[in-house]
TrEMBL record:
This is aldehyde dehydrogenase (NAD(+)). Residues 30-493 form the Aldehyde dehydrogenase domain. The keyword Transport does not apply. The active site is at E265. One of its GO terms (molecular function) is aldehyde dehydrogenase (NAD+) activity. InterPro entries: Ald_DH/histidinol_DH, Ald_DH_C, Ald_DH_CS_GLU, Ald_DH_N, Aldehyde_DH_dom, ALDH7A1-like. Its EC number is 1.2.1.3. The keyword Oxidoreductase applies. Homotetramer. PANTHER family: ALPHA-AMINOADIPIC SEMIALDEHYDE DEHYDROGENASE (PTHR43521:SF1). Keywords: NAD, Oxidoreductase. It is an enzyme of class 1 (oxidoreductase).
Amino acid sequence: NTDIQSILNKLGVKESNAAFSTGSNWGGESNQEILKSFSPVDGKLIAIAKVAAVADYEDIIAKAQSAFKEWRVIPAPKRGEIVRQFGDALRENKDALGTLVSYEMGKSLQEGLGEVQEMIDICDFAVGLSRQLYGLTMHSERPSHRMYEQWHPLGIVGIISAFNFPVAVWSWNAALALICGNVCIWKPSEKTPLTAVACQHIISKVFKANDVAEGVCNLIIGDKAVGELMTNDGRIPLISATGSTRMGKAVGAAVGARLGKSLLELGGNNAIIISEHADLDMSLIGAVFGAVGTAGQRCTSTRRLIIHESVYDAFKEKLIKAYDQLRIGDPLDQNNHVGPLIDTDAVAAYLDSIQKCKAEGGKFVVEGSVLTGEHYSSGCYVKPCIAEVKNDFKIVQHETFAPILYLIKYKTLDEAIALQNGVPQGLSSAIMTLNLREAEQFLSAKGSDCGIANVNIGTSGAEIGGAFGGEKETGGGRESGSDAWRAYMRRQTNTINYSNTLPLAQGIKFDL
Ligand code: NAD
């Protein structure tokens, strides 16, 4: 495939078959196990990656530990300067990397480019933050004492990422972890190793130009088994894992058992409440983009619409019309709205969910199906569909990572909020209303129980400035903006006595 080859050349990826890289070197010779990356766009095999064996893993850990000793003493603003250069390198490679993301993962080119833009944005954010890793100063109860807190790096940060944001999630973690003084080991999804290799090339060049020690940012290719090596490893104080709730429960338990720290970013089951006071045209765009964008494979995809009974029928008709106009096909062709699912397993899960929904009494107003024919040869293209359901259907309580949208009717706002909150997940939520009382109730303590709650925008498409993450089975982690950086550091409280005596706290007397 000449196109992809020229993109790889632009990105400097010459060996796409390496198992892992530390710094700028490639290796991983000790294992013969491989994994293959197929593009869901056209079904072509685009990369063969060697899976890291235990010996490779040990090598990476040793390099990371040694690099940490150097990296942690570089002043944070100087580390920020290197992250700034990484952001610039991403700017230079935005088109090529965005196209590769689109081709390997299957999201639209616009979204692939948007994903790289998010990487650039988090670098900019991290550069500023590198001069703002503030701790508090407290007044001591003892005379001539000073008390303050400071933040130190943790050591190795393990990053385990999902296929659907194959590069951005790594950068959210890495940019912050790096300015905080940590080193990283990244295990990308086994479904998207090639984009990860490309990212490693980009950052390695920047490190090399700055004489940064090898082992500050490491890539390790493998599946769940490699992830498990990381989660059980006491040498990795923080594991930041993004993926399914099933994975998060396993990772949380393994890291918890060794009393390590975990930052979990798991599945969502996101709803938009469409009130009788909503701007229905605006709501339509938010709902349709939220439900079909990235073919329903965003953690923040809109899965449920909770619609007021007075506008339910009108809005349903608008949705049906809009779905009729969706163009499904090659995501690199900008005329298309919807690309493929990641693989044929995801297609099987989509079909299974449709069946389960029907078995529970769901009524499809837009039917789903798998597309066949010349343009759909990968077998990964499906038709976005819409079903009228009850919120307590088992299938509605579950996150299906596909473009299936559920419609639920409500009478009162209290009922709508209860429905919105009435799922095990708690990632993103939204209300469409022009009524101030409704909006404020939705955002209040008795409103949405999610980590993200929006008014008059949909559930998907967060900006990096805010802390990103969710509650309940979404895992409770926060990444990206606001003070999410604190998760990547350890807090130390310091008390300094500059008097001539040693008074004890709480007035305790101890004389010798
Ligand atoms: P997945 O859970 O199948 O895999 C995610 C990653 O975890 C992969 O790298 C995988 O190899 C690894 N993994 C799986 N089991 C593991 C284990 N027991 N120990 C260690 N590592 C393990 O998820 P996926 O299909 O790649 O991604 C889709 C899921 O990710 C959806 O549920 C989606 O909502 C979620 N997601 C959440 C966010 C968020 O920020 N909340 C963002 C993106 C995706």
